[in-house]
């Protein structure tokens, strides 16, 4: 058996190296599977970044409306929406949806 191993030493070495590189190609930190996982994480982070940028723009716009030059219409809409207040002789209806099925 030892003689066979000595004869096929290079064959065993090349076989081991090929298996080692193939295994590391597929798995490992820089492998193919890890590449696709990191690519998916990158796409999710880009979507999250775009969503957060939109929120920041919206908040900046709302903040600008509440700066030194107050926008009376915006403040009135905030009061109506948040505090459910209205003007004299104005009726406010709150519609609640029933999602229950018979």
Structure overview:
The protein is mostly helical and 102 residues long. The chain has 2 domains: 1-30; 43-89. It is built from 4 helices and no strands. It has helices spanning 2-7, 9-26, 32-65, 72-83. The longest helix is centred in the middle third of the chain and has 34 residues, at 32-65. It starts with a helix and ends in a 19-residue tail after the last helix.
Tally of helical segments: 4
Low-confidence segments, given as residue ranges, are none
Q: What is the average per-residue confidence, as pLDDT, rounded to a whole number?
A: 81
* Radius of gyration using CA atoms only: 33 Å
Number of strands: 0
DSSP strand content: under 5%
| Largest sheet geometry | none
How would the global form be characterised?
A: rod-shaped
**How much helicity do the residues have?**
55-70%
Structural class: mainly alpha
Provide the domain count: 2
> What sequence of helices (H) and strands (E) makes up the elements?
HHHH
Q: End-to-end distance, in Å? A: 79 Å
Chart the SSEs and their pairings.
Blueprint lengths: L1 H6 L1 H18 L5 H34 L6 H12 L19
Supply the key terms.
single chain; 102 residues; mainly alpha; 2 domains; rod-shaped
Summarize it.
By secondary structure, this protein is mainly α.
